[in-house]
Amino acid sequence: MSKKIRTEAVDYLFSAILSLKDKEECYTFFEDICTINELLSLSQRFEVAKMLREKKTYLEIAEKTGASTATISRVNRSLNYGNDGYDMVFERIDQETDPSL
């Protein structure tokens, strides 16, 4: 992980996020801490990552999500050369959906 983001303030933010108990609390907190556009951008990148893992084309992804090819490329680079954070979360979501995985 990049040492640039490892600060006391980021640690405190992550502690706050980890304290959230359910989706409703997430909505309440994130609506306060993020602008609507920031939250929509985060969710768009997450959807792009999901679609890239499903081997969708850039064109299919752009049409469905409205993401630019630059955003799709950036997410793809994170999937291929990042810290595997997307994969970690997607695996957990998959296990929640299908515990036999």
Automatic annotation (TrEMBL):
InterPro entries: Trp_repress, Trp_repressor/repl_initiator, TrpR-like_sf, YecD_YerC. Pfam families: Trp_repressor. Coiled coil: none annotated. It comes from the Bacteria. GO terms for molecular function: DNA-binding transcription factor activity; sequence-specific DNA binding. This is TrpR YerC/YecD. It comes from Schaedlerella arabinosiphila.
